[in-house]
Specification:
The complex is a heterodimer of chains A (about 325) and B (about 450). Chain A has about 325 residues and is mainly α. Chain A is built from 14 helices and no strands. Chain A has one domain: MetI-like (MetI-like fold). In chain A, α3 crosses α8 and α6 packs parallel to α12. Classes of the chains: A mainly alpha (about 325), B alpha/beta (about 450).
Chain lengths: ~325, ~450
């Protein structure tokens, strides 16, 4: 009896008991699935971004020169020396960094502004269907699709003092300048860099704004037209506010790309950029890889990272607050 | 459900695989340091008119080496603009070639990294001894008092190349021996509508080679005896200014040359647009650009007074290429055999003829193949009036920082801005402050 009594509940509960762990296991599996799927991304993020970043931060506290690059971990600690050198704006290294920073900020603001303006204007202009629109759109995207190196090398040829197309047009044909100008050395190099940067960057703005424009209902424009709004008013009251979210991302991405652009100045000017066009990415590259002062270069990189974090954070905070107010 | 589970398993496997390859990437890939004693990897610097030309010159020799020793050499010709960075990367990762070429001025800098095999007596014995090499070439193989980090392979020196026709048209009988003569000749040449002298104002290394020689001619050095940078010494400033003044004040170097960095001045000379060129071993280069050998003459680089010689009459740096062995090669024996082969009399003759350079090996240098007038000038310069660039660990940084300063001064001169003693000193001071503390 006892045995049956004992056995019975067991027999009764056994199927349920077996089901319960299975269900629990299923639930665990279901709950863990998203994390499992995220794992590759997390690992890659760790390997590609976080580990090198951590190594860079460690390096910035070391005296890392040619004597230690075979095994950087043996380089002696230098405390905050690398940072002190970088921000000592009275001494040449700090002064050059500050100047490069100033050039980069000015260059970025101008380049992003122009890219956005040209891209938006082109997108608005191309909004209405007309003959040849597809072809024109494809043409607009050519600078964006070309490999950076090939495109910038072509610009190098065009900017050459003696045989370049730019001087040929400005000086020989239009007689705008008294003497052929230098574009790849000296002060004009800033404008050469800006030209290439805008030429390369605006098609991206055009692409994104065009995509954004597709989402604005045509009825809004029709209604506005019925109410007597002109083109400019339609752009101001409908197009720009509707593009707000798109522009917010666009400007941020353009800003980060332009601020950190390395390829354009490096291909244009080589490893020693003229002072007027000494963008911070090449400046840091030169400090680390050309003068083999990896510790100072790392410190400069960390300072740059902090700056970009603050600016990006501030920008996101500001724009999202603006949107919340607008939504409310 | 099964497909989701499969996806999850796949994702995890993928991430683990990625992690494994990423971690192991440094040690398993590359394959440069041949584990097999029957292979070697060789990074050759780009010596000829193009990478393809170099392959054509070198491959038959490497085949010969394979026939003799059974060791296959995998060749990679690396352009100059990439070479130092490639070596640096290889040093950091430990994944370098077995044998490589280095610019001889980098010897001390690369020696400091500890990546290159030191050439002590024992290693030199494997390739026939230290005495086989010319002393001036050995001067650019590392810091004095230490075992060399490399072995000289090709030697070069600067000379003055001049266009015979332009000289004759301007009524100039012989090439200038001093800078004053050059400037005076320049006036006559400009009167004929030709440009006088070429320079590569935006090429950092070229700038360094010239200001170094100018400093020597002024009795000055960029480094103190104990290896500290001394870029702002009054005589150094004066020397750098006098080089830039060739454009800024004397106007013998055209303003357009301030942005040259891709050997455009060699093309200008080869095309007959320009009367003179200061270059190292230009013959092969000029030939490849279609300039016939009778069209130009070759003379020693001018000095301040008198004739070239030791001391302040130095008129060239000791230019050249060294061959080095990566310390962590798995085939040290094979590497030594290869260096021996490349520095053997027979190979020295073949390779230096192909590149119009001078063999740094004594016995090969005496070969009649190197007795032609242009090689004689280079040989004589190397023997009597050339000096090695400072063999200090920070030489490579010196090339960059001072080279950049000179580039900026040329840019000022080209834009018509005054180049003064103060502006030169300011640029050099900045260069000095950017040098790493040694």
């Amino acid at each position: 009896m006892t045995t049956t009594a004992l056995k019975e509940p067991v027999r009764e509960t056994s199927p349920g008991a077996a089901r319960a762990p299975r269900r629990r296991a299923g639930r665990i599996r279901r709950l863990s699935l998203p994390y499992l799927l995220l794992l590759p991304a997390l690992l890659l993020e760790l390997l590609v971004h976080l580990v090198p970043m951590a190594i860079g931060i460690v390096m910035s506290f070391k005296e890392l020169t040619q004597f230690y690059i075979r095994d950087w971990s043996t380089a002696p600690w230098s405390g905050l020396d690398n940072y002190r050198v970088s921000v000592d704006f009275d001494a040449p290294v700090g002064k050059a960094l500050l100047q490069s920073f100033g050039v980069t900020v000015g260059f970025t603001l101008l380049s992003v502004g122009l890219c956005w303006l040209i891209g938006t204007a082109a997108a608005v202009f191309m909004q209405d269907a007309f003959r040849g629109r597809g072809l024109l759109r494809a043409l607009f995207l050519v600078p964006y699709a070309l490999p950076v190196y090939a495109a910038v090398i072509t610009w190098v040829f065009m900017f050459q003092h003696d045989n370049g197309l730019v001087n040929h047009v400005l000086h020989d044909q239009l007689h705008l300048t008294g003497e052929p100008s230098f574009w790849l050395i000296g002060d004009n190099s800033f404008y050469a860099l800006l030209t290439v940067s805008v030429w390369k960057g605006w098609p991206f703005a055009f692409l994104i704004v065009t995509a954004g424009l597709q989402n604005i209902p045509r009825e809004l424009y029709e209604a506005a037209a019925l109410d007597g709004a002109g083109t400019w008013q339609q752009i101001r009251r409908i197009t720009l506010p509707s593009l707000r979210a798109v522009n917010q991302v666009l400007v941020l991405v353009l800003f980060l790309w332009t601020f950190n652009d390395f390829n354009t100045p490096y291909v244009l000017f080589g490893k020693a950029a003229p002072e007027a066009a000494d963008l911070i990415s090449v400046h840091i590259y030169q400090s680390s890889f050309v003068t083999w002062n990896f510790g100072t270069g790392s410190a400069m990189s960390v300072l740059l990272l902090l700056f970009l974090l603050v600016v990006t954070g501030g920008y996101l905070l500001l724009t999202s607050r603006g949107r919340r107010t607008a939504d409310a | 459900m099964r497909s989701i589970r499969a996806a999850a398993v796949g994702a995890v496997t993928l991430s683990l695989a990625l992690a494994a390859t990423a971690c192991g990437g440094g040690s398993s890939t590359g394959g440069a340091s041949g584990d097999s004693p029957k292979t070697l990897t060789y990074w050759a610097s780009n010596q000829g008119a193009s990478v393809a030309v170099d392959k054509k010159v070198l491959q038959p020799e490497l085949d010969k080496f394979e026939k003799q020793t059974g060791i296959k050499v995998k060749l990679e010709v690396v352009p100059w603009s990439d070479l130092l960075n490639r070596i640096l990367t290889a040093t950091t990762s430990g994944q370098g070639p077995d044998v490589l070429n280095i610019g001889n001025t980098w010897s001390a800098s690369l020696q400091a990294t500890g990546a290159l095999l030191p050439w002590d007596e024992q290693n030199f014995a494997k390739i026939g001894g230290r005495d086989r090499f010319v002393e001036s070439a050995l001067g650019s193989t590392g810091v004095q008092g230490k075992d060399p980090a490399a072995v000289p392979l090709y030697s070069m020196a600067y000379a003055l190349y001049y266009n015979k026709k332009i000289f004759a048209d301007a009524g100039i009988g012989k090439p200038p021996a001093t800078w004053d003569e050059l400037i005076a000749d320049g006036k006559k040449i400009k009167a004929r509508g030709k440009s006088v002298l070429g320079a590569e104002g935006a090429n950092l290394s070229e700038n360094i080679h010239h200001v170094f020689v100018f400093a020597k001619q002024h009795g000055a050095d960029f480094f103190t005896a104990d290896g500290k940078p001394d870029f702002t010494a009054p005589k150094v400033v004066e020397a750098v200014k006098s080089y830039v003044d060739l454009m800024a004040k004397d106007k013998v170097v055209p303003a357009g040359d301030a942005e040259y960095a891709q050997n455009q001045s060699v093309s200008d000379f080869a095309k007959g647009r320009q009367a003179m060129l200061l270059w190292q071993s230009a013959a092969a280069n000029l030939k490849s650009q279609g300039m016939s050998e009778d069209a130009y003459g070759i003379a020693p680089v001018p000095v301040r007074s008198g004739t070239p010689g030791q001391g302040t009459q130095v008129n060239s740096m000791v230019a050249g290429i060294n061959i080095a062995v990566f310390k962590n090669t798995h085939n040290l024996d094979g590497a030594a055999k290869f260096v021996k082969f490349m520095t053997s009399d027979a190979e020295q003759k073949i390779l230096n003829t192909a590149y119009s350079t001078v063999p740094p090996v004594r016995s090969a240098q005496d070969d009649p193949a190197f007795g032609a007038p242009d090689t004689a000038v280079l040989k004589n310069t190397l023997a009597t009036s050339a000096a090695a660039l400072p063999q200090v660990p920070s030489e490579s940084q010196f090339e960059t920082t001072v080279g950049t300063a000179v580039k900026e001064l040329f840019a000022d001169a080209a834009a018509g801005r005054a180049v003064t003693t103060d502006s030169v000193r300011a640029k050099l001071e900045k260069a000095q402050q950017q040098m790493p503390a040694a």
